[in-house]
Amino acid sequence: MVTNRSAPRAYNRHVSVAAHASAVPRQELVVLMDGQCPMCRRIGARLRALDRAGRLIIADGSDAEVRDRHAPGLDEATALAAMHVVMPDGARYAGYDGFLHIARVIPLLWPLWLLGRLPFAGPIGRFAYRYIAANRRRDGRCSDLVCMR
Predict the structure, then answer these.
(1) Distance between CA 21 and CA 2 in Å, rounded?
(2) Domain for residue 12, yes or no?
(3) Using one digit for the tens of pLDDT, what is the confidence trace for 78-102?
(4) 101 within some domain
(5) Which residue ranges in the chain fall short of pLDDT 50?
(6) Which domain, by its residues, includes 70?
């Protein structure tokens, strides 16, 4: 029996998830949300709960110092109109596009990231995000009791 030792070895399908996850470079994303919006704060709290790997830094986009530190040049009106995601290289994505970057680093949101990459999903997702953002209530400062409901 002759064997070809130069043939590539079969791919080991039993590689652990932990080994795979450690090979993926860590990306920390800064998520700037409207800290005076109860709905935004509630979403931020849910994202924190889903982010078991600690890849998201949720920050208040209504705070000028926070904006200057994470997204220099981002004015208040623009920051409050939509959520902004700041990538490690400094690139910024707003609204639906920012959400897709969040979904990419949180494993439980990967199905939404995959669906969001379909050709028809972008226009629909951007429209839905703009509609919800434009019609959200912003009744003063949000207390943690209000936001946790």
Answers:
(1) 38
(2) no
(3) 999 999 999 999 999 999 999 999 9
(4) yes
(5) 1-24, 146, 148-149
(6) 26-147
Structure tokens at 36: 């005076």
Q: Is residue 10 part of a domain?
A: no
3 assigned to some structural domain: no
Contact 118, 131 (CB under 8 A): no
Which of 50, 39, 52 has the alpha carbon at shortest distance from 134? 39
* Residue listed under structure tokens 């979904």: 103
Give the predicted TM-score (pTM) of the model: 0.74
Contact between residue 15 and residue 53 where contact means Cβ atoms under 8 Å apart: no
Total count of domains within the chain: 1
Q: Report the sign of the C-alpha dihedral through residues 137, 141, 147, 149, in that order.
A: negative
- Burial (Cβ within 10 Å: 0-12, 13-18, ≥19) of residue 102: buried
